[in-house]
What we know:
By secondary structure, the chain is of the alpha/beta class. The protein has two domains: about 1-125 and about 260-285, Rossmann fold; about 130-260 and about 295-300, Rossmann fold. About 45% of the residues lie in helices and about 20% in strands. The protein has helices spanning about 5-15, 40-55, 65-80, 95-105, 130-145, 160-175, 190-205, 215-230, 240-250, 260-275; strands at about 1-5, 30-35, 55-60, 85, 110, 125-130, 150-155, 180-185, 210, 235-240, 255-260, 280, 285, 290-295. The strands form three sheets. The chain has a six-stranded parallel sheet with strand order 3-2-4-5-6-13, with helices on both faces. It has a six-stranded mixed sheet with strand order 8-7-9-10-11-14, sandwiched between helices. α4 (about 95-105) links the parallel β4 and β5 (about 110). The longest helix has 16 residues, at about 40-55. The model is unreliable at about 5-25 (pLDDT under 50).
Amino acid sequence: xxxxxxxxxxxxxxxxxxxxxxxxxxxxxxxxxxxxxxxxxxxxxxxxxxxxxxxxxxxxxxxxxxxxxxxxxxxxxxxxxxxxxxxxxxxxxxxxxxxxxxxxxxxxxxxxxxxxxxxxxxxxxxxxxxxxxxxxxxxxxxxxxxxxxxxxxxxxxxxxxxxxxxxxxxxxxxxxxxxxxxxxxxxxxxxxxxxxxxxxxxxxxxxxxxxxxxxxxxxxxxxxxxxxxxxxxxxxxxxxxxxxxxxxxxxxxxxxxxxxxxxxxxxxxxxxxxxxxxxxxxxxxxxxxxxxxxxxxxxxxxxxx
Length: 305
């Protein structure tokens, strides 16, 4: 959907009032993400590269998986008089007070990668096609395990991107002979992924596959499977450098639905400029994903795509 909104004009006006002349001094933007990851760093680098070409700046702050800290970061962005905020929320619902503060200040918001619960309070949402990522992982599982079997899911319910991935995956494998014996919150991180998979394997030693909502918790699952000597396979989402290395090794980590943080970053800042300039812009941008497996992994080994 395309639209023009007053928020962009207000955001630009606020910047002007605070002495941030677009042409003389350049604009400051704020970008905060939920936890340290080279995925989110790459998004920020992509934004920063385009901002610098325009004489502008992106202030990048990791919220360290702390909702209260992220709200404080946004309060600081407002104090600094940023012209716009790029937001990847720690908690899709808990971030709402910060959205209200930004709306009140007339500062436009581009929601990045993981949607907030109240999308009507942001100007645009830019993310991977997360449901599509789950779909292609489900299709890959059906291809690799045509006889079905017991599987487990490592999810992260506080994260809308992971919810969408799991939804797409489950819809795709429904009726294909798979039995979801366990579904655990691995918080999108390696250590919980390891611990949860260890517990699952103890209860279900014949597990044929683990679907991990991102490559980070998939790394934990991979380690647990290797430790147990199990024949279980792992499918993740991200196309991370680490995930691709595991796939190249030819072990349990067999596939990942690849995202493009570079494209997410460039689309996000280009959308922000359109908002500030009062131009038409997309309110919902889904960046396509694709499968990386043993057949094509060597083509994508150089960092993020």
